[in-house]
Specification:
By secondary structure, this protein is of the alpha/beta class. The protein folds into two domains: 124 residues, Enolase-like, N-terminal domain (Enolase-like, domain 1); 250 residues, Enolase-like C-terminal domain (TIM Barrel, Alpha-Beta Barrel). The chain has 14 helices and twelve strands. The strands form three sheets. Strands 4, 5, 6, 11 and 12 form a five-stranded mixed beta sheet that branches. Strands 7-8-9-10 form a four-stranded parallel beta sheet, with helices on one face. Strands 1-2-3 form a three-stranded antiparallel beta sheet. β9, α11 and β10 form a beta-alpha-beta unit. α1 crosses α4 and α6 runs parallel beside α7. The longest helix is centred in the N-terminal third of the chain and has 22 residues. The protein starts with a strand and ends with a helix. The protein binds magnesium ion.
Length: 390
């Protein structure tokens, strides 16, 4: 089998990222979305979504490369290769783009391509990705509704009630106005806890730059971070997420040592080398690789091994289309210990339309993990064609 095409597909939508003041749902990136399609001469195709600066990513995948090693575009490195040689191709992409890549957009594009290759590999074997990765340990997992903070306690309560009515046993509120005013922060969290009741999981993602950000960055002091964690502990928050500058591994470890609430992070971390440092330095209780940023499935499966060795949990970050949810679910199926799948309830018409609503939640708040070849998520090609911008 040979790779015949590596196609970046740029989609344009009509809404923009926004938190809402009232109970109504927030919106994720609704203006641009990049998909990657890898095609083969065997007729097997892999699809992946990627959270990145989409227009620039198009140039990295299919633009004009240079002759010097390290300045190649990713597509030209793959044409004619056997897609089953996933590990070798990951290295080839990394080295071929190393002078401009290694992290950021370069690594995000590699992540999408790597996911496509894993999808192709499992489709070619006629098994689900989870079975390709070593096999399924479960067929369902609890979904958490992942959304943004609302501006008032009443709106928080109404929003939380809405998720409970839909059957969610766990909800994460993040960003929005959180962090602007510690007094209001407490009221918002208290309202959410009250509405969810004592038994459901409440997770908080305070953001690592202040809400209402207008190009300014004011980090929390260590004392402020610890005070925030203690406040969240009063409301039995299940984890506090990604609230420290992503380069400050030392700060994560220091705050975690004082926090009564488990610390979750890792959505900004990429490559096995960086995850190794992040985990070994004792930064987190819950590691959250994003499969569209971390280096793809190839990196995520190694992170799973590191997490097991360190005795911490792994819950993939997945706040994008159903494709990323699909890849994340396949990884979750293989974990010795699984807690949640992140469920993006704030999808815009653009991110929602790429693949139909494929994960039916049951009354106990869990979603099924597909066991069909690949990841069990079908791209809506008519929708993609209608929104294509390149
Ligand atoms: Mg987050």
């Amino acid at each position: 089998m040979r790779i015949t095409e590596v196609e970046p597909i740029l989609l344009r939508g009509e809404t923009t990222y926004q938190a809402t003041s009232g109970a109504e749902e927030a919106t994720d990136n609704g203006d641009w979305q990049l998909l990657v399609r890898v095609a083969t001469d065997a007729g097997i195709t892999g699809w992946a979504d990627v959270e990145t600066l989409a227009p620039a990513a198009v140039a990295i995948i299919s633009g004009q490369g240079m002759s010097v090693l390290g300045f190649h575009t990713l597509g030209e490195l793959l044409i004619g290769e056997n897609p089953l040689d996933v590990a070798r191709l990951w290295d080839k992409l990394y080295i071929g783009s190393a002078y401009y890549g290694r992290r950021g957009i370069g690594m995000q594009c590699i992540s999408a391509i790597d996911n496509c290759l894993w999808s192709i590999r499992s489709q070619a074997a006629g098994v689900s990705l989870a079975r390709m990765l070593g096999g399924r340990r479960r067929d369902r997992v609890t979904a958490y509704a992942s959304t943004l903070f609302r501006e008032t306690p009443d709106a928080m309560a109404a929003a939380a009630h809405g998720y409970v009515e839909r059957g969610f046993q766990a909800v994460k509120f993040g960003w929005g106005v959180f962090g602007e005013d510690p007094g209001r922060d407490r009221e918002l969290v208290a309202a959410a806890r009250e509405a969810l009741g004592p038994a459901r999981h409440l997770l908080v993602d305070p953001g690592w730059y202040p809400a209402g950000w207008k190009g300014e960055w004011r980090p929390r002091s260590r004392r402020e971070s610890i005070a925030m964690c203690r406040m969240l502990g009063e409301y039995n928050v299940g984890w506090v997420e990604d609230f420290i500058h992503p380069e400050r591994f030392d700060e994560y470890a220091a705050v975690r040592a004082e926090s009564p609430v488990p610390v979750a992070a890792g959505e900004q971390v990429a490559t096995t080398w960086e995850f190794e440092r992040f985990i070994r330095q004792g930064c987190v209780d819950v590691i959250q690789p994003d499969l569209s940023r971390c280096g793809g499935v190839s990196v995520a499966i190694q992170v799973a091994r590191m997490a097991e060795e360190a005795g911490i949990d792994l819950v993939p970050h997945s706040w994008l289309t159903h494709l990323l949810t699909g890849y994340s679910l396949q990884l979750i199926a293989t974990l010795p210990r699984a807690r949640f799948v992140e469920f993006n309830v704030s999808q815009s018409p653009l991110t929602r339309g790429i693949a139909g609503a494929v994960f039916e939640m049951s009354a106990d708040g869990t979603v099924p993990i597909p066991d069909t070849p690949g990841i069990g998520v079908e791209v809506d090609v008519d929708f993609v064609r209608a929104h294509r911008a390149n």
